[in-house]
Amino acid sequence: MTLTNDGRYMIVGLADGFVKVFDFQTKQEIHTFNGGSLALSNKIFSVNTWGNRFIMAGYESGEILIFDLEKRELIHFQSAHGSAVTSIAATSDGSYLVSCSRDKSVKIFNLQVVKQELGTFFHEGICRGINFYKMIIRLCDGIGSNKRWTKYYLCRRR
Q1: How many CB atoms lie within 10 A of CB 76?
Q2: 60-65: Cβ within 8 A, 24+ apart
Q3: Collapsing DSSP states into helix, strand and coil, what is residue 93?
Q4: Helix (H, G, I), strand (E, B) or coil at 19
Q5: I need a labelling partner for 124 at 20 to 30 A (CA). Which of 22, 93, 137, 143 fits?
Q6: Mind listing the pLDDT tens digit for each residue in 3-33?
Q7: CATH assignment at residue 10
Q8: 47 in Cβ contact with 56 (< 8 Å)
Q9: Residue 48: which pLDDT band, with cuts at 50, 70 and 90?
Q10: Is residue 101 part of a domain?
Q11: What are the helix (H) ranges across the chain?
Q12: Using an 8 Å Cβ cutoff, are 151 and 132 in contact?
């Protein structure tokens, strides 16, 4: 579960592969996104937002779906992860998306050019969380008091 940046909507990824959007104040369901055949055979492992418009869902199959909340559209990214997407995040300006998987791969996508994968690298442990601070990607592995954060620098090409 996550909230949009403005706190207006609550986004919930369900075990049946669907993504539900609720008005946070009234708790009324606003919309249900359906990933089609992907949703019917996959669990959602990670859900996140960027801005107040886009919802990202990482699936057990290693694929990523991006939904446009405003237009109620689906944009599909073939992430090519070897196993479940465990975490997904986008930079605050919506330029980059980063996902990580149980196979320890970390993928970086350019969101300004549809479906352009910028690169892949491997993290030493299974990534359980991603966040950004400016152009620094922070990956978390471990659980509870054993959490460990590792920093990677995302540099723009000149």
Answers
A1: 14
A2: 60/84, 60/85, 62/101, 62/103, 63/38, 64/88, 64/97, 64/99, 65/19, 65/33, 65/35, 65/38
A3: coil
A4: strand
A5: 93
A6: 888 899 999 888 788 899 999 999 999 999 9
A7: 2.130.10.10
A8: yes
A9: confident
A10: yes
A11: 37-41
A12: no
Q: How many domains does the chain have?
A: 1
Structure tokens at 26: 């009234």
Q: Give the number of residues written for the chain.
A: 158
In a domain, 89, yes or no: yes
From residue 56, how far is each of 51, 66, 87, 98, 124 by CA, in Å? 11, 4, 10, 11, 24
42 assigned to some structural domain: yes
Domain carrying residue 114: 2-126
Q: Tokens 């149980």 belong to which residue? A: 102
**What is the helix (H) or strand (E) element at residue 3, kind and residue range?**
strand 2-3
**Segment among 38-42, 57-61, 72-76 with least mean pLDDT:** 38-42
> Which single residue is written with the structure tokens 């990824």?
13
Residue 90 CB: number of other CB atoms within 10 A?
22
pLDDT at 24: 95
Q: Is residue 9 part of a domain?
A: yes
Please tell me the predicted confidence (pLDDT) of residue 29.
96
